Amino acid sequence: MMKKIVFLISMCLITTLAAFNAHAETPNHLDGVVDKYFKGKSLTKSDDITFDVAKRGLDGTQVPFNFTVKKQYKKISVVVEGNPHQLPGIGSLALTMYPKTAPFTFKTHIRMEQDSYVDVIAEDENGKFFYNQVAIRSAGGCSAGTIYDADAVSKEIGAMKVLHSDNKASVFIKHPQHNGFQANLSNHTGLFILQEWHLSYVSVRDNEKEIWSAEFGGGSTSENPFFSFDSPKIKGDLKVMAVDSKGRKFFNKYSNNKLM
Question: I want to staple 97 with a disulfide (CB 3.0 to 4.6 A). Which of 71, 76, 129, 156 is the partner?
Fold first, then answer.
C-alpha cells in the first residue's frame, strides 16, 4: 500500500514539473517576425549582438532592455515578439535605429504584454541581416489601464532632460506613449481605449553631427521614455529632436554635462 502511495505521489510530482516546464518555455516566433517585417530576407544569428537584461521584468509597463553591437550597422530593429500590434502578424516593432558609431550600447524601457523573445535584427552596409534574441518574462505591459489626466499631459508633453559625460549620455522625454490597447481608468462615464499616440522619431546630434536616430512604432517603448547610450567623445551640447505620431515636434533646450 505504501509503495502504491509513493508511486502515485511521484507521478503527480512528475506531471506537475512537466506542466511547469512547459509553461516556463517561452515560444519562439522569429519566423513570424521575419514574415511580417523582413519578408524574403535571410537572417544569420550573430554573437556580435549581446544583451544585458534581467530574465524577468517585474513591471510589464517598464521592462529594462539593454543591447550592444560591436560592429557598424546601417540599421538596427528591435521587435517584441509577444506584444500586440495594430497590424496583423507576429510581434510589435518597437524601434528601428540608425546608429552612426560602433561599438554601440543602447538602453531603454519597453512594454511587454507576455513572456516573449525580444529580437534585435541588424542590417549592414551590404544589405545582409544579422540577429540575436533574448527571452524575458513579464506580463500586462501593453493592456494595463492608466489614470489619464489630459491637462497634466498637455502641460508636460515633450519636456526633456539630457545628461552626458565625455562618452555616455541619457535622454529623458515626457510622453504618454499610448499604444492603442490601454483603458483610460479615469473616464468616469465608462472605460474606453486611449488612441494610439507615441513618439515616431528621435534624433540626437553633437555639434550638428548625428550620433543616432530612430523611428518608433506600435507603442512598445514605455511611457516617458528614456534612452541611454555610449558615444565617442562628446564635444558640445547634445541636440535632441523628437516627433510624435500626431506630428508634434519637441526640442531640448540644452544638455548638462553631469552624467556620472
Answer: 76
